[in-house]
Amino acid sequence: MKSAVGSVKNNSISLIFSEFKEITKAKLAVSVVFSSIAGYFLGAYQVDLFSIALLAFGGYCMVGASNAYNQVIEKDLDALMKRTRNRPIPSGRMTVRTAMGIAIALTILGIVSLYILSPKTAMFGAISIFLYTSVYTPLKTKTPLSVFVGAFPGAIPFMLGWVAATDDFGIEPGTLFMIQFFWQFPHFWALGWMLHDDYKKGGFKMLPTGKRDAGTAFQIILYTIWMIVISVVPAFGITGRLHLSIPAAIIVLLSGLVMLFFALRLYQIRDNTSARRLMLASVTYISLIQIIYVIDKFIS
Description:
Blueprint: H1 2-24, H2 26-43, H3 49-73, H4 75-78, H5 96-117, H6 119-139, H7 146-166, H8 171-194, H9 196-202, H10 214-232, H11 246-269, H12 272-299
């Protein structure tokens, strides 16, 4: 009898944890935390494990809160799309009240954690939540410019780590911001290309021309080129303490050219397979260059 009760409790805890991961989009949140920690290592004069823990916890809370608010706002639209209809709220596994409670709690915990690091860190975290939930999310059904707006909160994490380490915003975190800002466009337009039909069911306008056409593919190429240019700028010694050695810059450049190759292939072929390859290349690219930047700082 005791064993059965224990098993039920374990299953309940497992289900609650599973729903929490779904409502906060755990995989996305962890990738954002990774970006923030990379930025912290780049900015830190001396690595402090407690600060990293606060940044990781606060960063997850802020991203998780944004995603929970988003799913509350879009619950009816999520129910229309195959990709999202099984999320906790539209599937009926979680109430709106519960999701809002999670979002509010995470917001408070996130802001407090980041404020302990520095007020500027908390401010940028709060700006990120506001832009994502109050501007980007409502615009998704109104205009393709929503991707431009969404690129701002999406680009904050890499920069946020530097600010958390230094309590300063200057050309260094600004450069990190610009790298991830321009990266957002090929990444999300590739995703939007793949999910275009499903997005249409929810009324989302994610592609710049509204179509999977040459115009969208051409803009993906342009933003990929800008991303590559910004990524190697630190090698020229004009970005303050943010340096990149020549060997590291070459690796970053080659990584960007691989991504550009997939963008060109999408322009040439214009199918979902090409879009998926570009999307996967973009995910690999952003993580890889962050690792390269950090390693290069400590070995050069």
